Amino acid sequence: MKHLDQGQRPVGGRGGTMRVVVIGAGVIGLSTALCIHDRYQPVLQSLDVRVYADRFTPLTNTDVAAGLWQPYLSNPSNPQETHWNQQTFDYLLSHLHSPNAADMGLALISGYNLFHEAVPDPSWKDIVLGFRKLTPRELDMFPDYSYGWFNTSLILEGKRYLQWLTERLTERGVKFSQRKVESLEEVARGGADVIINCTGVRAGELQPDPMLQPGRGQIIKVDAPWMKHFIVTHDPERGIYRSPYIIPGIREVTLGGIFQLGNWSEVNNIQDHKSIWEGCCRLEPTLKKAEIVSECTGFRPVRPQVRLERERLRFGPSNTELIHNYGHGGYGLTIHWGCALEAAKLFGEVLEERKLLRMPPSHL
Amino acid sequence: MEQNGEVTKRSRGCCLNWPGSPQAYAFCFHCSPMDTVRIAVVGAGLMGLSTAVCIPTLVPRCSVTVIADKFTPDTTSDVAAGILIPHAYPGSPSFAPGPCEAIRGLADSHGIIFKEAGSSRPLRPELTLCPDTPVHKQKQWFRETFDHLFSIANSAEAGDAGVYLVSGWQIFRSMPTEEVPFWADVVLGFRKMTEAELKKFPQHVFGQAFTTLKCEGPVYLPWLEKRVKRSGGLMVPQRIEDLWELHPSFDIVVNCSGLGSRQLAGDSTIFPVRGQVLKVQAPWLKHFIRDGSGLTYIYPGTSNVTLGGTRQKGDWNLSPDAEISRDIFSRCCALEPSLHRACDIREKVGLRPSRPGIRLQKELLAQDSRRLPVVHHYGHGSGGFSMHWGTALEAARLVNECAQALGSPAPKSKL
Predict the structure, then answer these.
(1) What is the average pLDDT across B145-151?
(2) Greatest CA span in chain A, whole angstroms?
(3) Is the CB of residue B123 less than 8 Å away from at least one CB of chain A?
(4) Residues B49, B257: contact at Cβ < 8 Å?
(5) Residue A350: helix, strand or coil by DSSP?
(6) Which of B164, B165, B337 is nearest residue A97 as measured by Cβ atoms?
(7) Fewer CB within 10 Å: N-end or C-end of chain A?
(8) Is the CA virtual torsion A247, A58, A36, A106 positive or negative?
């Protein structure tokens, strides 16, 4: 392999510059932009990455998420997702030891998963730290539940993480543009060589996807600084996220337990509020004294599996490469880095096909 | 016991805080003037206040007055982080009562007082012959304290009381002699740390993970004060120089004066172990980390994180030392690098009331014809929060024994 000297870079895209547009500024969009930039900027003559979005933090769905690293209990239909979850956990864990952890919105957190009956251990039991079953005295704290787990996981607070990602991207010269993208064609004709589609729950507006649906969630944020553990309950009859959960963040505690498939209402619903409040106070009576700070609604981009694949667009004479990275359901923060790495790998394939690389990119 | 028929005598205390109707005192069974035992608790730190809460639950018809020169937030208990991880007192390995109890029992029942040759001050054999707190007692008191606080932590009172659960790790640079300490089955979910967990602490070779309780002095003490007042107790800010000042206004004195016992009880075995801590803002920290030596620790609280610490024997200096603060911060950052982002750093100093063992003991002070029963309840060193409820219950039992003795026409001890 020819070793590249300083200044001797292979040819880029049109006119020497590879133009990448990332659509979407939630955790998927921003982390993919960062991953691609850091991996390929050193080996391209010129890389221009832009982020287009109509909503930026604090108005994205990522901002609403509590941020607990925890995949679904059942195995994903795509086994790659397990690998992407693991990669994300390992990546975040490696950042824990730096002074930057708090800036990223990252912290270790331990807590309880509660069930009405014994269940098999989850596939991620060896990814998290110190996984074990709950002891009888611990279960006594939760009279409605008879079985459970204790483990140490991570919190990655959406809002703080997006701010951190934005800062890192800005440092690297990545441009942000607030705009509502009406079509992929518009972006392609605008000069993009590669489009990364991180439009989350509204991806269907750019390209119909019957498998994608909103999983509406509502959460209440409270001031309860004595809460040091997460408490997530499960009710198989009601389904995931439909049972109360309490997740402390850096400063506030998120209370939730709402999951409504197909509901696009952005307005906070009073019935949902009652359901969350009563469910969480029943689970943790100390919350009765907690002050409510805010309440919001978000939409999990629910899909049977993540759409992470390439597509080639042809508008007129030009080819534009499209990489889809959306449909992460309620586990976007949990899986984001593994998906960003995969998207970057797909991007690398594009570069290779176009003979834009003289040597393989360094592995992260 | 001095009697008068007036129920409204203010020193009784019981009816002062009785809510509601002016006739309430007529229904107050505490205030039958014949039978009310007037109890003074000296000291308003953790021991004084918890004992003051326990006493009315065990002693029928009493009034409780807490007298101290310092109240929260100015007590030693306000500085402590309040985490329930027992401090190892030197304890006798045997479970049988030691020789000291036998000597004490003998001395009490025969009214024998030992005197040092050439001195008029009584020598206290129990102080010099019986220094240690047996492990079975430590475990009992820790369990009682843990269970009591655990039920508060799971109730709606938790926030008002400042009591909550916290998980974390105790880590060791070399294998400890005891991998499983005596209190392992009292805390929740005790287990050894996994290899993956230990990776977070490259300088340490072994660790224990568990869930315990944190009891925050500046919140818990005011909550205890409220409970004392609710059951009719009084708080009196006053410095006591001699326990005899409390005679004859009070029938029984409970001495919870910590280091003040050097003067008030003539106890030269109690000495300060100075502890300096930092209180910082680092709300992302959710776990405690304690180095097995006990010298370096990180305890996340409700409104700040306590970083510690020091153990300086015999040091009475209450002013923070900047060099020590830098050292504490550096040691804690080595365990938890994210602390470099901590802000609003405040320094605090507390003097642990240290003794070879906790003093929980009755003493009948005698001077001429005067008698004053005293229950001593002090000397918990680093283990105040861990043991307080268990020892307060024991102190209240001793107070009740004194109260019973007052009531019954027992023969007076001869000098």
Answers:
(1) 97
(2) 69
(3) no
(4) no
(5) helix
(6) B337
(7) N
(8) negative
